C-alpha cells in the first residue's frame, strides 16, 4: 500500500508533516495485522484534504487485512462515509446504535442539532 512515505525512509519523525506522521502511525498499528484497531480522533488535527487521504488509507488497510475497527470521531462526515455502524454516546450512555444506512443525513443532523453533517458534534453542543 502506498502511504506516501517511500522517500522519507531516512527522515526523523520530528521532520514529518502531520499527515505523514498519521500515515506512519497507521502503518505501525497495522504492521502485525491486529484483530482490533482502535482509532481515537486520528484525523482531528489534519486539514480536510489530508484527513480524507488518511481516512481512505485507513479504510483500505482495514479492508485489506479484515481488521475490526472502533473509530472515535466527532466528524459526522467520517461517521457516515467510513463506518458500518454508528453508536452515539451521551454522558456515557448509548443513545443511538444503528447500522450505517439505516438513518438519513437529515435525521443525523437533527440528532446532533447542527446545520449539516460536515459539522463537528462539538460545534453543535
Automatic annotation (TrEMBL):
Q: Tell me the membrane topology, using the record's own terms.
A: Peripheral membrane protein
Compartments where found: Cell membrane
* Name the record gives this protein: Vitamin B12 import ATP-binding protein BtuD
Q: Which UniProt keywords apply?
A: ATP-binding, Cell membrane, Membrane, Nucleotide-binding, Transport
Q: By its UniProt entry, which Pfam families does this protein fall under? A: ABC_tran
GO MF terms on file?
A: ATP binding; ATP hydrolysis activity
- Under the cellular component aspect of Gene Ontology, which terms does the record hold? plasma membrane
ABC transporter domain: from which residue to which, for each copy? Answer: 6-44
Amino acid at each position: 500500500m502506498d502511504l506516501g512515505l517511500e522517500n522519507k525512509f531516512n527522515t526523523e519523525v520530528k521532520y514529518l508533516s502531520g499527515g505523514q506522521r498519521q500515515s506512519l502511525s497507521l502503518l505501525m498499528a497495522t504492521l502485525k495485522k491486529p484483530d482490533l484497531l482502535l482509532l481515537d480522533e486520528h484525523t482531528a488535527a489534519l486539514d480536510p484534504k489530508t484527513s480524507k487521504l488518511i481516512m481512505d488509507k485507513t479504510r483500505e488497510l482495514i479492508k485489506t487485512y479484515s481488521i475490526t475497527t472502533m473509530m472515535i470521531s466527532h466528524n459526522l462526515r467520517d461517521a457516515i462515509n467510513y463506518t458500518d455502524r454508528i453508536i452515539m454516546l451521551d454522558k456515557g450512555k448509548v443513545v443511538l446504535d444503528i447500522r450505517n444506512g439505516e438513518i438519513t443525513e437529515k435525521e443525523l443532523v437533527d440528532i446532533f442539532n447542527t446545520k449539516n453533517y460536515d459539522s463537528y458534534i462539538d460545534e453543535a453542543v
